[in-house]
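Quick one: structure for this chain?
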Amino acid sequence: MKEWRILEKHLPDSIFVRVYEERVDLLRAVIIGPKGTPYHDGLFFFDIQVPSDYPASPPNVYYRSFGYSINPNLYAWGNVCLSLLNTWNGQKYQRWNPFQSTILQVLVSIQGLVLNAEPYYNEPGYGNISPRPSWFKKRSLRYNEDVFIMSCKTMLSILKRPPKSFEEFVNQYFRNRASAILVACHAYINGQAEIGGPIITSTAETKITTSLTSFTFKAAAGFLYPRLVDSFIKNGSSVESIELLDTSKIMRKSIGRRHTIYPRSAVMLLVLIIFAMFFVQKFYGAGVLLYSLFGFYILLLFTCIYFFLPLYM
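Got it. Here's what it folds into:
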C-alpha cells in the first residue's frame, strides 16, 4: 500500500505506527508528546481507519482518550477535530486534498498543531485574539496545568491497559522515561518551573522566590505523584538515581488551606443563598422560591464536583 511506504520512509522518530496485514484499512499510531509542551513525555494513541473511497475521503481517526479530554481538539469520547480530517472548519487549503494529503500529514499535524505548547488557544476564536491580555496568559498557564495532570493520568491508564500491539513498546518507553517524568513533576510541584518549561534546579545561586505553578495544581499533582512512582516501579523502572518527592507535606498544607478557605466560602455562600431566598420570596412568591432553591442546590453540587473531584481521580 502506498501509504505504508510513505510512513516507512518519512515517519518522524517521535511517531510510531503499527499496520495489520490482515486488515490493510486499519492502523494504530502513537505520538510521543513534544518537548516544551504540557504533553511532554506522554504517549497518545490514535486508531486510523482508511475508508473504501480513500483518498477521495480522509481517514477516520479515533483518539484513545481513556476518558480524558486533554485538548480542545481531542474529545474524551475519541473525536479528533482537525481541518485536515474535515472534522473542523478551515480554509480550503487546510482541508483534505485527495491529490496531496496523506496519513503522515495527519499524524504530523496532530503532533505539531494539536499537541502544542499553548493548547488553550486551540479553543475556537481564542487563537485570533491579538494582543493577548495578561489574564488570558494566566488562563493558558492554568489550562496547561490541567492538561499535564490529565496527561499523567493517561500514563497511568496506559501502563495499566497498554493498547494491543504496543504492550512491549509502552513498558520499555516508561522504563526509559520514568526518571525524567518524575524529575519534571518534582520541579512543577515545587513551583520551580512552568508546565512544559525548562527545569531549574534550585540552588543558593538560583533561588526560586515566586512559585511558577498554582496551589491547586500542586495539590492535585501531590495526590497523583505517589501513584506515578508506584506504577513506574511496578513496570520495572529504576528510580534510585533521583530524589523522590515527599508529597505528604504538600498534602497537609493542602488540607490545612482547605480547612481555612472552604468554611469561609461555605459561610459566604450560605449568606448569599439566604439573601437570595428573601429577595425571591418578597418579589416573586413562594412558588418561584422553590425553583430557586432547587437551582441553588444544583449549582452547589456542580461546584463541589468541579473543585473537589479532580483531586481524588
